[in-house]
Amino acid sequence: MKFYLIRHGKAAYNAPTDEARPLTEEGIQQAQRNGAFLKALGVMPTAIYTSPRKRAQQTAQYIGSALNCDPIVDDAVNFEFTAQKALQLATNHPPESSLIFVGHNPSMSEVVGQLTGTRTDMSTCAIAYIKDIDLPQARFANLKWLMTPKALNAIINSE
């Protein structure tokens, strides 16, 4: 099984509630680039799970649009997201599945650590690709790469 953990794009602060904070123009561009990047890599997700907060849903929508996969809103991916919750959602899918989770920090960074033993602090719209997840324990999963928006921009602009 493969997981792609994505922190939502850059969000505005001028919303009536935290749940309603939308993406900024920069956040929209980040999410669109992530979708194009994953599509160029040939990622074909079995499912995209997203936090119910607006900024995460918008990020998931842009990525899902690029990958022809409609996001599923699930509170499990909200602020209290854990590796155990990711694994629970994964049990609904075959072992060869690729799952995308779009949520928030610090939980996205913590889940990367819980699954792989690495430490990271994911920036907005960063993507962590984890593979070799052996359900149900998910011990010794491999962090294959972590892509930040800054690194992705550098790649795109160097072409």
Task: Describe this structure as you would to a colleague.
Strands 3-2-4-1-5-6 form a six-stranded mixed sheet, with helices on both faces. The longest helix is centred in the N-terminal third of the chain and has 16 residues, at 25-40. The protein is globular and about 40 Å long. The chain is 36% helix and 19% strand. It is of the alpha/beta class. It contains five helices and six strands.
Topology:
Blueprint: E1 2-7, H1 25-40, E2 47-50, H2 54-67, E3 71-73, H3 83-90, E4 98-103, H4 107-116, E5 127-131, E6 142-147, H5 149-158
Parallel strand pairs: 1-4, 2-3, 2-4
Antiparallel strand pairs: 1-5, 5-6
Helix pairs in contact: 1-2
